Amino acid sequence: MKDNYWINRWKQGEIGFHQAVINPYLRQFWQELKLAAHTTVLVPLCGKSSDMLWLQEQKYHVLGVELSTIAVQTFFAENALSPHQSQYESFKCYTVDDLSILQGNLFDLRKEELASVNAVYDRAALVALPPEMRKHYVSHLLHILPPTTQILLITLDYPHIEMAGPPFSVSPDEVEALYRDCTEIRKLAQVDVLEENPRFKQRGLSRLQESVFLITL
After folding, report:
1. Residue 187 has pLDDT above 90, yes or no
2. Helix, strand, coil shares of the chain as percentages rounded to 5?
3. What whole-number distance in Å separates Cα of residue 64 and Cα of residue 90?
4. Cys-Cys with 188: which of 61, 163, 210, 212 at CB 3.0–4.6 Å?
5. Around Cβ 51, how many Cβ atoms within 10 Å?
């Protein structure tokens, strides 16, 4: 899967993966992290997610990372925000108050950029990547994130032979395998959601589960 795949999806408006409302699992389980106010939350492959605004409203510094310029510019335009723009290493940085988005390739992130990060909110990154890229993504995160960082991870699990992603199926067993070097992996929820997602039934799925994990590095 090349970078152009996601850039073209945004150009063509093929963004069925975008959620227009605040993710309910974020609201329900974020308190499990017990983060102090004004700490920094990384949102990888953030798109134009309103979840970032919710995190900012909870008094956190938010750092999104997004490949598509269209996604970043649309986020600020739709929310009537005028960001300050600057160049930062391999990224173009858009900032409004305590919310910043780095526009560029997630795999270009270095430890220096994430030195202040205390938590990661991953709803759309891991499930957006095919298997080999998932391994690379997790390995990269584990290398660049500070010790004791917490990750709130949301995944989808379905019979992968029934549908070609994205979003890709990531089973709880795969999450355990990918993050086995972490000190703790807690499954907070596993919910059957096929009936609530008719578009996935139309694509041929017989089973669809969402899982929520709290991972501590």
Report:
1. yes
2. 35, 25, 35
3. 14
4. 212
5. 23
Sign of the alpha-carbon torsion through 110, 116, 106, 216: positive
> Residue 45 region, left (φ>0) first, then alpha (ψ -120 to 50), else beta?
left
d(CA 110, CA 92): 15
Asked if residue 149 lies in contact with residue 142, where contact means CB atoms within 8 angstroms, the answer is: no
Nearest CA-CA partner of 82 in 64, 97, 71: 97
Q: What is the mean pLDDT of residues 167-174?
A: 96
Pairing of β 150-157 and β 209-216: antiparallel
Nearest C-alpha neighbor of 40 from the set 149, 116, 144: 116
138, 134, 151: which is closest to 188 by C-alpha?
A: 151
Other CB atoms within 10 Å distance of the CB of residue 157: 20
CATH of 3-11+23-216, one of 3.10.560.10, 2.40.30.60, 3.40.50.150, 3.90.1150.10: 3.40.50.150
pLDDT (tens digit per residue) in 60-80: 999 999 999 999 999 999 999
